[in-house]
Write a structure and sequence with these properties.
- The structure holds 2 protein chains of 2 kinds.
- In chain A, helix 1 packs across helix 5.
- Chain A is built from 5 helices and 11 strands.
- Chain A has one domain: Rossmann fold.
- Chain B is built from 25 helices and 28 strands.
- In chain B, strand 17, helix 19 and strand 18 form a beta-alpha-beta unit.
- Helix content of chain B is 35%, strand content 23%.
- Chain B is an alpha+beta fold.
- Chain B has a domain of 147 residues: PurM-like C-terminal domain (Phosphoribosyl-aminoimidazole Synthetase, Chain A, domain 2, Alpha-Beta Complex), CATH 3.90.650.
- In chain B, helix 7 runs parallel beside helix 10.
- The chains are: A alpha/beta, B alpha+beta.
- At the A-B interface, helix 1 and strand 6 of A face helix 8 and helix 10 of B.
């Protein structure tokens, strides 16, 4: 199972993501620097979290225009699974690979805590290992996780089964519209989510609820019947 | 050489006393240039020279079997075995944070992180000890909001987990908040980098961000008291850029792997001046800098401004010339400046060239390690009078008192604060804020972890600086022990008032004596630190606040304890004497509205005996939960364990006066939760070892109960505990609830 992790200056959960991919896939991920214009064939490309280029403009806006993101877009167009977590989700939205935008948390503060996520659909490449409606634990750590899209887009996302994760049990930490925590592209191979599944993949993390995403997309582990 | 006349006013504005200026004249045999005056001011101020404290700091124990590097470098280094070491330090950013809370706190975090990675260590944990004025002071809420956002803003973006810290409120910090930032990193013992330059004629390289006018004179500002001109000091505060710092971290660690680095020093206080002088003076070398080669972000900067700028995210390095291309390529890759700005010389002079002429030529040793040193007069503090618990009335309603205490400004939950910090980035945080110590896995090691705690009880230090200093060390050591760690070493951040006042100097002297005595007794050496003096506003000093940041080692991280985790039926044993001491306690302050009375005595032999016993229980896997006893005594410790475990407890009263038993702040004590099957054996072992051990409660139910006296629902405890901070920050608490 080959994976690749995009490296941009200012990202800081790249090491967490690399460790998670290493332990779950059993193979050391490739890393792809910001200036690369091509990505070797892999089973999954991940854009990890952090503060790319300091996020001094809109979150993810500068990163979305880096050379490597053109390569990510090209791979996504070929159907390669792409996962964006936190800043990675923001970057994928800014790059136009996912609809909508991530605004400042309604609290106007950074928030780091554990939330509950509802697996809205398991009919995606990223969630087939979960049961539909399953509630999982997952940490968040962000300042700009308040997902927003216009009504028409939201209706389409819901209608097409593109809303993948929703904050559950009143744990929405950022004011995201309709409690949206993660969405998948229309083509189904690009997913972005604000929470950090890579920080909940070992017993020493306090749980392994985050493993399902990686196991699903990499075709590993136990499948749960739909 | 200079167009600016050196007048007595100008000398005074640089914080130099007339006798210090005389010393400069004697040293160089002529009037200094304005640039030279600035350099002396930067090097000889209290912040950089430790001139008032050095004599006393020398008395601290700084060595030990595991100590690789003690004070005097960017950070202390302690061996943790298997070729790994932990590199750590704590440093204050008090004055800047009061003037501009967000940037002051942010650059405090940035500065301490840089100290750690300058030595070749990747930062793995941060803590922050914050002290603010009274909650009802008009400035406090603004400072809390700004400082917490600044700490988070920098640390979160840089990517280090904040795993612990302290937040306290007291009117004595109304005009002078404290922001003490701690950072720790991991390095290999054979790849530690130092600031001592070696070799003549080698290139001195400037790395990182460009130099601007921000922070000019910051270190001198930090060595003065505050008055009504404070608002004019805002331009002396630097602006932080955590993105550049993160790039600088990665670039420096890559660079160090190439073998190109001979010496490296970050630019902190007094920027280019201090870093260059330290590298040269330590290596017995001169340094020549050509300022025309310094990367600048503003036009027409003078030599004076460049030498005193405190622009952040900069480093100075002595480079192996043959590695230049390789080194430069790394910095280009990370989008950072790389410029050869000078060279090492053999003449022990610090020479500055600017616009083709020499604007400074000074003896480097006298600027640096041979700077002036004072033996300031001091008077022995008179410890506060003992208050006997028998002379204090019991509270009318014990249940109400407990609720009041868990919801008081100093004891309430800090969730509002620590949820603004990324506490789990890097994926190694085993225990996050809210317990006795933060615990972080040693990345890449199968079983090891490190524990971190930051502690001091300023009201004890005010009542008795010696006992207070010792207590700060003891409590830190105890908190590390309470998670099952073996305390290794500590860093100290000594925050005091104006040392030119003999009574303040007396506080400093006695606190250091207390710290030294405790560190020796507990085998807990001080390996790094920082002194912050002149913490006064309109002549009113802060409470003496010697913050201790400690690091402990956990060999087997499957055998630790935490504050939560009690199960129904678990027996709570108190290790240590029964509570009797209410002087200077939180109870006395919050319930009786009094802040007097002697500080509790610290019996260091007892502290060690009890701690070693508790640690052995934890390491043997016999403890379900553990908590040290500190602010608020036994009642608050058990209440906190109940809240963390989501289960109630029924207390079994001990001997003596009930209010002292519940709320006394006697030292050297822990509560451990053990299974009923284990309790008798543990008690017997304590008896055999001569360690006091009392069954104080049984876990179960959904309330904290003392039969016949009080019953407080767990839900009510939690609401009281969790609501004070968010309500206060939302502006819903206009006045401090203290003082009935």
């Amino acid at each position: 199972m080959k994976t690749a992790v995009v490296l941009l200056p200012g990202l800081n959960r790249d090491r967490d993501m690399i460790a998670a991919l290493r332990s779950i896939s059993g193979v050391e991920p490739l890393t792809v620097w910001q200036t690369e214009t091509a990505i070797p064939p892999v089973n999954l490309i991940v854009v990890p979290g952090g503060f790319s280029y300091g996020d001094y403009l809109r979150c993810g806006a500068i990163a979305a225009r880096s050379p490597v993101m053109q390569a990510v877009a090209a791979e996504a167009a070929r159907g390669v699974p792409v996962l964006g977590v936190c800043n990675g989700f923001q970057i994928l939205c800014e790059a136009g690979l996912l609809p909508g935008a991530l605004m400042r948390n309604t609290s106007l503060k950074f928030v780091c805590r554990e939330v509950k996520l509802e697996v809205v659909t398991n009919r995606t490449r990223f969630t087939s290992g979960y049961a539909e409606g399953q509630i999982i634990r997952c940490p968040v750590a962000h300042h700009d996780g308040n997902y927003f899209a216009d009504e028409a887009t939201l209706e389409r996302l819901h209608g097409e089964g593109q809303v993948v994760f929703r904050y559950a049990e009143g744990t929405n930490p950022n004011g995201a519209v309709r409690d949206i925590a993660g969405i998948v592209s229309e083509s189904g191979n690009v997913m972005g989510l604000m929470p950090h599944p890579e920080n909940l993949v070992e017993p020493e993390h306090g749980g392994t609820d985050g493993c399902g995403i990686f196991e699903s997309v990499l075709g590993l582990g136990q499948k749960v019947a739909a | 050489m200079s167009d600016i006349a050196i007048t007595p006013d100008l000398i005074a504005a640089h914080g130099l006393k007339p006798d210090e200026y005389e010393r400069i004249l004697t040293l160089i045999g002529r009037e200094p240039t304005i640039t030279e005056l600035g350099i002396f001011s930067a090097m000889w101020n209290e912040h950089c020279s430790y001139k008032s404290s050095k004599r006393w700091l020398r008395t601290l124990p700084t060595t030990g079997a595991r100590v690789i590097q003690g004070p005097g470098e960017n950070a202390g280094v302690v061996d943790i075995g298997d070729g790994d070491c932990v590199v750590f330090k704590m440093e204050s950013h008090n004055h800047p944070s009061f003037i501009e809370p967000y940037q002051g706190a942010a650059t405090g975090v940035g500065g301490i992180l840089r100290d750690v990675f300058t030595m070749g260590a990747r930062p793995v944990a941060a803590m922050n000890a914050l002290r603010f004025g009274a909650p009802d002071h008009p400035k406090t809420r603004h400072l809390v909001a700004g400082v917490v956002a600044g700490v988070g803003g920098y640390g979160n973006s840089f990517g280090v987990p904040t795993v612990g810290g302290e937040v306290n409120f007291h009117p004595r910090y109304n005009g002078n908040c404290l922001v003490n930032a701690f950072a720790a990193g991991l390095a290999k013992t054979d790849a530690i980098f130092y600031s001592k330059a070696e070799g003549v004629g080698l290139p001195v390289v400037y790395l990182g961000a460009k130099t601007g006018r921000d922070g000019v004179g910051g270190a001198t500002m930090a060595s003065a008291e505050f008055d009504e001109t404070i608002e004019e000091k805002r331009p002396t505060v630097q602006v932080g850029d955590p993105f550049t710092e993160k790039c600088l971290l990665e670039a420096c660690l890559e660079l160090m792997q190439t073998g190109a680095v001979i010496a490296i020093q970050d630019m902190g206080a007094a920027g280019l001046t201090c870093s260059a002088v330290e590298m040269g003076a330590k290596g017995d070398l001169g340094i020549e800098l050509d300022l025309d080669r310094v990367p600048v972000r503003e036009a027409a900067m003078t030599a004076y401004e460049m030498m005193l700028s405190e622009s952040q995210e900069r480093m100075l390095m002595v480079l192996k010339p043959e590695k230049r291309q390789e080194a430069e390529a790394i910095f280009v890759k990370w989008g950072l400046d790389f410029a050869i700005v000078g060279r090492t010389t053999d003449d022990l002079r610090f020479r500055i060239l600017w616009e083709g002429r020499e604007v400074a030529n000074l003896p480097i040793k006298q600027l640096g390690d041979e700077a002036p040193e004072y033996d300031r007069p001091w008077i022995e503090p008179v410890p506060a009078k003992v208050i006997h618990a028998a002379d204090l009335a019991e509270p009318a309603d014990y249940g109400a008192a407990i609720l009041r205490l868990v919801g008081s400004p100093d004891l309430s939950s800090r969730r509002w604060v620590f949820e603004q910090y990324d506490t789990l980035i890097q994926g190694n945080s085993l225990q996050r804020p809210g317990g006795d110590a933060g615990v972080v896995r040693v990345d890449g090691h199968a079983t090891k972890a490190l524990a971190f705690s930051s502690d001091v009880t300023p009201r004890y230090c005010e009542a008795d600086p010696y006992q207070g200093g010792a207590q700060a060390v003891a409590e830190c050591w105890r908190n590390l022990t309470a998670v099952g760690a073996t305390p290794l070493a500590a860093t100290d951040n000594l925050n005091f008032g104006n040392p030119e006042k003999p009574e303040i100097m007396g506080q400093l002297v006695k606190a250091i004596e207390g710290i030294g005595t405790a560190c020796r007794a507990l085998d807990f050496p001080i390996v790094s630190g920082n002194v912050s003096l002149y913490n006064e506003t309109f002549g009113q000093a802060i409470l003496p606040t010697p913050t201790i940041g400690g690091v402990g080692l956990i060999e087997d991280r499957s055998r630790t304890a935490r504050i939560g985790g009690m199960a129904s039926g678990d027996v709570l044993l108190m290790i240590g004497r029964e509570g009797s001491h209410l002087g200077s306690s939180i109870y006395l302050r919050e319930i009786e509205g009094r802040e007097d009375g002697a500080a509790p005595l610290v019996d260091l032999a007892e502290e060690k005996r009890h701690g070693d016993f508790v640690r052995s229980l934890i390491q043997a896997g016999r403890v379900a939960a553990c908590h040290d006893l500190s602010d608020g005594g036994l009642a608050i410790a058990i209440a906190e364990m109940c809240m963390a475990s989501g289960i109630g407890a029924t207390l079994a009263p001990g001997r003596g006066l009930l209010h002292a038993w519940l709320f006394g702040e006697d030292q050297g004590r822990y509560v451990v939760a053990v299974s009923p099957a284990t309790a008798d054996a543990v008690t017997a072992e304590c008896n055999a070892a001569g360690i006091p051990c009392h069954t104080v409660a049984t876990a179960g139910g959904d309330a904290l109960i003392l039969p016949g006296r009080f019953s407080v629902a767990l839900a009510d405890l939690t609401v009281a505990h969790e609501s004070w901070f968010p309500n206060y920050m939302a502006g819903e608490i206009a006045e401090t609830p203290a003082a009935a």
